[in-house]
Amino acid sequence: MQKYSNNIVQFTIAYNRYKIGVYNYVLKMVGNKMVCDDLVQNIFLKLFENLDSIKNRESIKFWIYTTARNEVYGYFRKKKIDTAKFTSEDTSDVKKRSDENIEYQFELKEMRKLILNELENISIEQKEIFLLKEYSGLSYKEIAVIADIDENLVKSRLYKTRQKLINRLSKIIG
After folding, report:
1. Which of 11, 13, 101, 132 is most open to solvent, judged by the fewest CB atoms within 10 Å of its CB?
2. CB-CB contact of 44 with 15 (8 Å)
3. Maximum mean pLDDT: which of 31-40, 50-59, 92-101
4. In the prediction, which pLDDT does 1 show?
5. Is the pLDDT of residue 43 over 60?
6. CB atoms within 10 A of CB 126
7. 3-state SS class at 149
8. Which CATH number applies to 96-174?
9. Domain segments of the chain as ranges
10. What does DSSP assign to residue 154?
11. Selection from 5, 92, 75, 85 nearest residue 41 by Cα
12. SS3 call for 160
């Protein structure tokens, strides 16, 4: 009984710590709130079911984001979605700070829309790395583990994605 109670506490802590980042990552990848809700629910259900098998509690974050990535790609495979052409709905962040200036919030939301629109024209591999870094706040090393690629490739993809976004956004804004 004690072990079950301990798992509930650990699950609750992990859920509260990672739910917003995982939700934003999945939503920006799939572009559909209903699908996102289902996928995020599956991710955290799998976490609860597999909590005992995660030996190192430090790796829960990796486990969650790896599972999130697998769920997203599983959704794409299941629906036979061409990942190079999917579109986003309004993907404003789940959590907003109420003490921020309304004009600033509007400009920030508009900039996010521009960035997300431009991300649609970038390969899925570059988009995913960008979202994991910029929206989920993961380190290069964490992204490399989750995406199962070399850390230098993560840095390269992120650099190229940022350069493409800067070039494209400077033409739109400039």
Report:
1. 101
2. yes
3. 31-40
4. 52
5. yes
6. 19
7. coil
8. 1.10.10.10
9. 1-82, 96-174
10. H
11. 75
12. helix
